[in-house]
């Protein structure tokens, strides 16, 4: 208990420092009113999704009961969510280039409360399925316009750190929200986070007015259009990288969830603490460090190093069925692996210099989504088949991530 208390104190201190630093840096980079509001909207919508995340596996277990069926349903839910998000990515990319970022952001944010209303009134897992589908497609719609806006507002020389700091909006929200959601689930009710998310999801509405005015001049969403064989080849390479990343990540989600629930026997609040510290805080730090490195070093080399160094601690997880050891190993995996994220976004914009950015971000994130659709179902099946040999599912899940190096090297 003392160790958990110290971890939470450190987490709150570091999180507040990261929020203050990210807003200060964005102010230095310019366009602070627009970027800050985009940052805030992104923070709020992902906060509401993440607030519900610790409760959902446990409410599914409450509805169903049997462990192996729960694993299968969780995999199915994740796959359905990622299918909806993938469709949203494609549609969002096309609409961003045709309608502009402001309209697509509004289209993606305004319907969000419906998802939480379905969670709140659920009496079987089908309500959760529909709510997850709505949340998935809306998040998918929002990804291309947010990224195009940042590409257009942040100078090229600072693009790595710009993306890193903007990524903190959805990462920091995923640090705070699961802790709060886990606490409320344990101490109030499993459905209380759904009610709170419903209320918070209304806050971005007035911010939409400012976005509509500030970005209304951007009718085409991005400044450039598709062309060139080299650009198309690079786009295919980036899509392949994202597909394999999505596949590996998708396979890992049910493996980690089942490992935490059944091997570590963690509570809902433990699940929130694990997610916030081991993924959220480590990933937030990775954005700052990775963003700075992306602007100062070779981006291809940085991505390759991050891939290679993140796999060994990931494969050690099954050997340490202890909460503290698990958190340390997952923090290492998240820190090292996610340092490549700002480099990847900046590298994508650089290489697609002759392409419509909305379509580029839409297709690459859709490729990630396709991998994420297949991954959770495979991960759930792997847990079902090899529960007694937990290293094997983790090893199989790491292979697509390692395979991304082939396409990273192939980018011109």
Task: Give the secondary structure arrangement, pairings included.
Blueprint: H1 2-29, H2 32-52, H3 55-64, H4 67-99, H5 101-109, H6 113-121, H7 125-153, H8 159-187, H9 192-200, H10 204-214, H11 229-263, H12 268-296, H13 299-316, H14 323-338, H15 340-351, H16 357-386, H17 391-410
Q: How many separate structural domains?
A: 1
> Structural class of the helix and strand makeup?
mainly alpha
| Residue-averaged pLDDT | 82
Could you tell me the number of beta strands?
0
Produce a short descriptive summary.
The chain is mostly helical and 412 residues long.
Overview of this protein structure:
The protein has 412 residues and is mainly α. It has one domain: MFS general substrate transporter like domains (Growth Hormone, Chain: A, Up-down Bundle). Helix content is 84%, strand content 0%. It contains 17 helices and no strands. It has helices spanning 2-29, 32-52, 55-64, 67-99, 101-109, 113-121, 125-153, 159-187, 192-200, 204-214, 229-263, 268-296, 299-316, 323-338, 340-351, 357-386, 391-410. It is globular and about 50 Å long. The N and C termini lie far apart (52 Å).
Based on the model shown, name its key terms:
single chain; about 400 residues; Growth Hormone, Chain: A; 17 helices; about 85% helix; mainly alpha
